[in-house]
Amino acid sequence: MSTFTTVLTVIVMGLVVIVLIRGLFNMMKGTDANKSNKLMQLRILLQAIAIVLIMLTLWITGGGRPS
């Protein structure tokens, strides 16, 4: 289970980076401000999901504490 959550966490963190870059490029182009705002909201949601997954992985594995 910890391998699954670790892989899922890495995927979500990759999505955070992709959404961040898309949002930044959209802001630099100066096009639709509403789209930039929606992308940044999506980034925050993905970051929250990544944090929850990281905490779940730490909880499942014991947080690096010796058994």
Task: Name the features.
single chain, 67 residues, mainly alpha, 2 helices, transmembrane helix, transmembrane
Structure description:
The structure is a single chain. The protein starts with a helix and ends in a 6-residue tail after the last helix. Helix 1 packs antiparallel against helix 2. The model has no long low-confidence stretch (mean pLDDT 88). The radius of gyration is 15 Å and the shape is rod-shaped. By secondary structure, the protein is an all-alpha fold.
Mean pLDDT: 88
Main beta sheet: strand number and arrangement?
none
Report low-confidence residues grouped into runs of 5 or more: none
Task: Tell me what portion of residues adopts beta-strand conformation.
Answer: under 5%
Specify Rg, calculated over alpha carbons.
15 Å
Count of separate DSSP helical elements: 2
| Strands, count | 0
Helix content: over 70%
Order of helices and strands: HH
Distance linking N and C termini: 17 Å
What is the overall shape? Answer: rod-shaped
Structural class: mainly alpha
